[in-house]
Design goal:
Ribosomal Protein S5, domain 2; 2 domains; 6-stranded mixed sheet; 4-stranded antiparallel sheet; globular; binds 4-diphosphocytidyl-2-C-methyl-D-erythritol 2-phosphate; binds adenosine-5'-diphosphate
Length: 302
């Protein structure tokens, strides 16, 4: 990728996919306890950062879903992350120009905003040549959203607690699989889906260790669940159509909703099969968003 001289630092913000998501309880503050295996897709947003005058924080929005975020203004998670980092560093005079290229649909269960926030934290630490210790960084990330801690590392991980307990997993068997992501254009706000679950909690069923072979991983995932799938379908029945279409598409060996929806994913034996499946789904449903690719392999080079 060529570097824009105005934005010398670039960080990928890959889509987060909950390969399974068990909701096991609720804390007194209303946040839910989760047991999830999270992976990251090659498909994602891009956060770029460059120098600006003292204290200035500006954000340009680009990409197909940039306009969908224009109304959020200063509430954009990228700017909230930047302000949070500056405050945690105790250096309000730090400034940056930021650009977010928004490829992922918004409020879609694939942690687009969370991954953007995590990418902004990584980009600004590099631009400003500053570091936070890991305890401070984790606290800042969690304050921005329950999904932000897992997005900081952007590697396959077990997620527990409310999202604050993140343990990377050796994901060699996952690395070669393909992912197709499909969103029917419906926004599903996360709180509404947790509310619709109505306290019907499931048991944790952590997949540990991960089988070595891709076939073993797929079989083990097939025996697990997304506990938010039924409540999401109750709020937004088209999610069931997305799952049915994925299940009927050549090359898709497992289909499930990610996060609180409405995006669903199909796992494919490899990247090429996922690209073919996405093209087929775009042909069948031109109004839907569908993206195929491999697993995310690593952050942008400095
Ligand atoms: C459900 C998950 C699963 O990975 O994914 P998404 O659907 O967002 O992608 C996440 O836990 C979402 O994380 P995130 O979207 O960052 O959540 P936050 O902004 O912190 O919280 C939004 C709202 O979701 C609910 N919430 C979120 C996380 C959690 N563990 N329990 C909850 O009950 C709360 O109602 C909270 O007010
Ligand atoms: N950079 C951003 N990208 C996406 N959503 C954002 C961003 N900044 C703020 N938001 C707000 O955060 C909410 C959750 O967005 P998102 O992270 O895409 O959802 P989800 O966690 O369900 O995948 C949306 O209501 C959106 O308006």
């Amino acid at each position: 990728m060529s570097i824009d001289p105005g934005f010398p630092v670039a960080e990928a913000a890959p889509a987060k996919v909950n390969l399974y998501l068990h909701v096991t309880g609720r804390r007194d503050d209303g946040y839910h306890l989760l047991d999830s295996l999270v992976a990251f897709a090659e498909t994602g947003d891009l956060v770029e950062a460059g120098p600006a005058g003292p204290g200035v924080l500006d954000l340009d929005l680009a990409g197909p879903f940039g306009p969908a975020l224009a109304a959020d203004g200063g509430d954009n998670l990228v700017l909230r992350a930047a302000r949070g980092l500056r405050a945690a560093l105790g250096e309000p005079a730090l400034g940056a120009r930021l650009r977010l290229t928004k490829v992922l649909p918004v409020a879609a269960g694939i942690g687009g905003g969370s991954s953007d926030a995590a990418a902004a934290l990584r980009a600004l630490c590099r631009l400003w040549r500053r570091e936070l210790d890991s305890v401070q960084l984790s606290a800042l990330a969690l304050g921005l959203g329950a999904d932000v801690p897992v997005c900081l590392g952007a590697v396959p991980a077990h997620m527990a607690g409310i999202g604050d307990r993140v343990e990377p997993v050796a994901g060699a068997g996952l690395a070669g699989l393909g992912l197709v992501l499909v969103n029917p254009g419906a926004h599903l706000p996360t709180p509404a889906v947790f509310r619709a679950l109505g306290g019907r909690f499931g048991a944790a069923d952590r997949l540990d260790p991960l089988p070595d072979a891709p076939a073993g991983i797929i079989e083990a995932l097939a025996g697990r669940r997304n506990d938010l799938e039924a409540p999401a379908i109750g709020q937004c029945p088209i999610v069931a159509d997305v799952l049915a279409l994925l299940r009927g598409t050549d090359g898709v060996v497992l289909a499930r909703m990610s996060g609180s929806g409405a995006t669903c994913f199909g796992l494919c034996p490899d990247r090429a099969a996922a690209l073919r499946a996405a093209a087929e789904i775009r042909r069948m449903r031109p109004a839907w968003w569908a993206a195929g690719g491999g697993m995310y392999k690593g952050r942008e080079a400095p």
